[in-house]
Amino acid sequence: MMASLFTSFDPSTNLSMSLNWLSTFIGIILIPSVFWVTPCRSSFIWTKILSTLHKEFKILMASNKMNGSTIMFVSLFSLILFNNFLGLFPYIFTSTSHLSMTLALALPLWLSFMIYGWINNTTHMLAHLVPQGTPPMLMPFMVCIETISNIIRPGTLAVRLTANMIAGHLLLTLLGNTGNLMSLYLINLLIVVQLALLTLESAVSIIQAYVFAVLSTLYSSEVN
Q1: Which among 152, 28, 32, 171 is positioned nearest to 88, based on CA atoms?
Q2: Sequence spans of domains, the chain
Q3: Mind listing the pLDDT tens digit for each residue in 96-118?
Q4: How many angstroms separate the CA atoms of 79 and 25, rounded?
């Protein structure tokens, strides 16, 4: 039971190779080239979403007096959203349910922000370790707390996304495996519950992609 429960998170295939990671790029492959050339309703909706995200990220960056492009964070949102959504379809591997994927996104971003900040804005980075108005006696403790909170940022980003993806998938799998033990009336009820959970998971997929991108934007704005 436990083995079959976690098989959906196994990146290996029958060829004993981790080819399931290729599902990360399914979102790009499935989008026809016509989408980018011919205006249509779906392209208009997606363009509107990206435009809204661009404006929000610009506001976050401007509030911290940071000038720069938002294309990296919008692209990050798109990548995570595609993978989260595709993982809800049967027999499609969810790469964002693995820490190796989410850490590969969070850790390089965090490291680049920290290296840039400490090299170019050392005084500003040191000032961030002691919040304004901190009593002198508490300053050593605040430095320790702020340092720890900075170090665990990539871990919290990665674990938050992974945990949310795994939790929803496990719940859907557990409920689906109980179908053959239920009566016809309970199966109808189970289908309704599954559809409700699927709707909830769709919302979680969007929210988690948005949270990951927004927090990455905030972390980048802090180093300026």
Answers
A1: 171
A2: 38-223
A3: 888 888 999 999 999 998 998 88
A4: 9
